[in-house]
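Fold this sequence, please.
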Amino acid sequence: MSVYEAVYDAERPELFLKAVAWRVVTDGEPARVRRDAGNSVPEPELALVVNAAGDIVGATVCDDLTARDIEGANPLYLPQAKIYDGGCVLASRIRPWWEISDPTALGIRMRVMRAGAVVFSGYTSTARMRRSFQDLVSWLCRELALPDGAVLSTGTGIVPPLDAGVLPGDTVEIEIDQVGALRHPLTD
């Protein structure tokens, strides 16, 4: 069993710091593909907006860009694969949590555009998540004070195949039912 398979069945979820606010970009702003990576992929995710008390107060759309070849070389390189300037993109709008009728059944769609053509598209649903939103938030808040709150991305169900990495010049489009959309170009 790989470390990735083991984490899905473990009591403790995989949580990590993706970005501090000044490393995040938003709608229309260029996100980055690491220059020292040969294969990077977008990862569309529902992001929970959590207040200082650990309550889910809203949701937004996130693209958790990942340098897949760096992570694949050794799981201990995960921070280098995930945490870099312009590697996290958040939509500019937050949907209040109480306005979402059923957060456990939201469709998530992603398209990667290159020179005006779709080079990858995928679909998933929050219904496929293995953990509840509140479970993820409870682990986030365990032994960690959040005086200003936090944004917690819940993981992806859409992973492009190895030969479908993104390139500078591509555009990523993500839509999540009842939450919103995110569209951004990529640069290096």
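The helical segments are 3-9, 68-73, 78-82, 133-141. The CA atoms of residues 156 and 170 lie 20 Å apart.
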